[in-house]
Amino acid sequence: MKHRTSLAGLFLGLIGLLHSNLVLAINDMPGGPARFQLNLQTPATKVAEEVAVLHWMMLAICLVIFVAVFGVMFYSIYKHRKSLGHKSASFHESTTVEIIWTVVPLLIVIGMALPATKTVVAMKDTTNADVTIKVTGYQWKWGYDYIKGEGEGISFLQTLTTPREQINNQAEKSDTYLMEVDNEMVVPVGKKIRMVTTANDVIHSWTIPAFGVKQDAIPGFVRDTWFRAEKVGTYRGQCSELCGKEHAFMPIVVKVVTDAEYTAWAAEKKVQMAALADDPSKTYTMDELKQRGEKVYAANCAACHQPNGKGAGAFPALDGSKVVNGSKDGQYKILLNGVRAMPKWSQLNDVELASVMTYTRNSWGNKTGELIQPKDFTTARAAK
Hints:
Number of helices: 11
Helix content: 40-55%
Strand order of the largest sheet: 3-2-1-5-8
CATH architecture of the largest domain: Sandwich
Structural class: alpha+beta
CATH class of the largest domain: Mainly Beta
Low-confidence stretches: 17-24
Radius of gyration: 29 Å
Mean pLDDT: 88
Number of strands: 10
Order of helices and strands: HHHEEEHEEEEEEEHHHHHHH
């Protein structure tokens, strides 16, 4: 028995030591959750501040009610117990008591509802925005289109950049694990930003806790919300609507900058977009298509079909696939229209589609030797 007790104590001690080491290894996430955080994130907007005040106000009201109700109940049970000779009273109803327990809760609910309603109305007031940005949810990334205000015309995708080695526990995790992206959404400080949300495939939800913003993105529908960041900095959030296999890999990063920095960013971004603009009329070489296709595949396809093309579960292997190695028409149809859990790739242009199709037909064990040009997708789309 003593031997078992000592082993149990040793085991618990090792668990405690491991837990303490893990806790010490965790740092605050810049723009995200803090170490040992139990409260809401530090507000960066007026709406988020009001939400925090409402949270604590309602928690305090509920706590007072809980203590009062259970305090009276336990006091009555203790002071009027049968062992002291007390006998239960016998009565039917009391109009006064019924009025009290109807009016008092009503007043409490009204007292809670008035400030909450004021905040909800403010959340929905998207008028007079300085910048309007359309946000589109994809499995599993975000698309941003600046459609009004300074920066109009800017468009980009925002994709997770956490290395697969960290996700597979083959490398040490960073402080921004699963919350880092390739393209941050940049907005000016102190300006009203209207977000118009929709989705390409399934329901997503664009959420930044520090802004007090959570807005569903629904296919075929348009919703909107807004925020006005009061502080310069980087803020992080995630898709908060279960949207499939890679739901946990849809981070959101917003960078709030000064007016001058925003103007400079918008100008630089437009120059970059012009330089990177694809020419769908160009005839590309095999090497050009495969190099571009590898990047498109890694960003859009590898999450399901795996980097090695072997597939996983419900997602079929592309290496050795009859579809990939068969008629080009079949693969055109899948990429343009989607099939089962795979969405249509409307966010990819013809150059990107041609590149990824060429890559899959000439990688791993697939050796078709076929080049797919952008004009082939233009023709396939017209033939639908």
